[in-house]
Amino acid sequence: MSDDIKKIMFTVRNAPHGTIYVYEGLEVKLIMAAYDADISVVFMDDGVFALRAGQDTKELGIKGFEATYGVMVDYEIEKVFVDRKSMEDRGMTEDDLLIIGEDEDTEEPIRPKVVDSEEIARMMAEQHNILPY
Amino acid sequence: MKFAVLVYEGPYNHEASDSAYNFVTAALEKGHECRGIFFYHDGVYNVTKLMEPPQDDRHIANRWSQLGSKGIDIVVCIAAAKRRGIVDSVLVDNVRISGLGQLTMMAIEADKMVVFGD
């Protein structure tokens, strides 16, 4: 059966606030993770801002979702990648990225994996379906 | 090819809905199979029977309903719909309201999912 497992990638390219795309996309990820599929998430372009630690949406008057992204690993969303160039273009470093869970054994924090565009292109070529948010 | 379609944008405001419809009808004519169509984000507005476009314009909701009458599974996301005040009773015939699990099944069972929207 394992040959039949569908590889589904989410791309997050929009800024986290200002439109609902990223928020409703998060809802899809959480549901889809419960199904038998190989899920990965790639943050690129303005989507990298969604992974910035220390977001505060109080003054926007909207519900934030940093806390939910902070437990992606608990939802079995473990393949989380960030495009290095998108991050650097926006003045962010790995230290700015929020923690997405902790290792069950070592309790070490898990951060999204920073990858180059070439690696993302290679992963995309392997996917059955890519859902952009 | 068995494909599924995901529509993100509302009707009239954005080309995505028209493009999705044209894509599905053309693909079916070519003999492809459509596993389903899923409306998400503002896409949920595509299938309300409350819309009343001018007579000389296309009726987007009825168009989708006619496609649904041919046996294509057309699903409106319940979470996105509730957020926007869309409930079962305002939907055109031949579409149904259901959860993101349906989107997941479409993504898993289709060979390709084609997404229309920003």
TrEMBL record, chain A:
The molecule here is called: DsrE family protein
Check the record and name the Gene3D superfamilies matching this protein.
Answer: DsrEFH-like (3.40.1260.10)
Question: InterPro entries of this UniProt entry?
Answer: DsrEFH-like, Sulphur_relay_DsrE/F-like, Sulphur_relay_TusC/DsrF
Recorded family membership: Belongs to the DsrF/TusC family.
Question: Organism source for this protein?
Answer: Magnetococcus marinus (strain ATCC BAA-1437 / JCM 17883 / MC-1)
Q: Could you tell me which PANTHER family the record lists for this protein?
A: PROTEIN TUSC
UniProtKB/TrEMBL annotation, chain B:
UniProt record, GO biological process: tRNA wobble position uridine thiolation
As given in the record, the signal peptide range reads none
Any single GO molecular-function term of the entry would be: sulfur carrier activity
Q: Keywords of this protein's UniProt record, alphabetized?
A: Cytoplasm, Transferase
Quote the subcellular location field of this record: Cytoplasm
Query: What is the top-level taxon of the source organism?
Result: Bacteria
InterPro entries per UniProt: DsrEFH-like (IPR027396), Sulphur_relay_DsrE/F-like (IPR003787), Sulphur_relay_TusD/DsrE (IPR017463)
GO CC, one annotated term: sulfurtransferase complex
Any one Pfam family here would be DsrE
Tell me, in one coarse class, where this protein mainly resides. Answer: cytoplasm
Record-linked PANTHER family: PROTEIN YCHN, SULFURTRANSFERASE TUSD
The name of this protein is DsrE family protein
State the organism of origin: Magnetococcus marinus (strain ATCC BAA-1437 / JCM 17883 / MC-1)
